[in-house]
Amino acid sequence: MLYRATSHRKRSPHKRLNANTLRIISTAMLPFYKAIATRRAFAVQWSRAVVQANLDRMKSLLCSVAPFAAKQGLGTNGIGYFISFLAQPPMLYYTNGTTIPPGTVQFIFEPRVHRAIAKAVFPLYRELARNPCFASALAKAINRQDQRAVHVMIRSLIPSSALKSIQIEDDGFALLFKYPFSKYPYRNLLFREFT
User: Fold this and answer.
1) CB environment 48-67: b (16+ within 10 A), e (fewer)
2) DSSP H helical segments within the chain, as ranges?
3) Are 137 and 153 in contact (CB under 8 A)?
């Protein structure tokens, strides 16, 4: 599964991002991000499976900490991973994951960076999972392409100086991180898959 940087397809007004989608994905991903942030050995094993494109190992690791997320679609490009959730039957999927931007490098996914990102984004996903009002406000801001509102809401929960940009992208968001101990930028993404 390869990450698509942008999409110019026309959006359907009946298939807009909603608070429930954000809450389901966030609730499913929280245990995984917690495990990455707090368990170094787990993060190392995950990164090795990503780089080796070992989907069976990724699924096994994910199942051990986040069983619902492990039941979803899973992909890797050797520099990141993508977990796809069916948001609205029959064909509306949203994907959450973290990747180095394609074209930057091959077969690198640093556990130290991934752990730092997981720690940084955890408060955002926790708020989305637990606070329906916040999830609704963020979904509405994304749907109306209100970049300033999205920036303010996400930045309020991720004050890290390593977060370099917050963008609305593919009916979701893209968070660009750059840490001084890595040569590479990384993106944490929640985006709609266009099929």
Assistant:
1) ebbbeeeeeebbebbeebbe
2) 19-38, 40-51, 55-65, 67-70, 111-130, 132-143, 147-155
3) yes
Copy the structure tokens of residue 175: 């968070």
d(CA 53, CA 57): 9
- Residue linked to tokens 């392409």: 145
d(CA 124, CA 35): 16
pLDDT, tens digit, 9 for 90 and up, residues 52-94: 999 999 999 999 999 999 999 999 999 999 999 998 777 889 9
Burial of 184 from C-beta contacts in 10 A (0-12 / 13-18 / 19+): middle
For the whole model, what pTM was predicted? 0.91
CA 93 to chain centre: 13
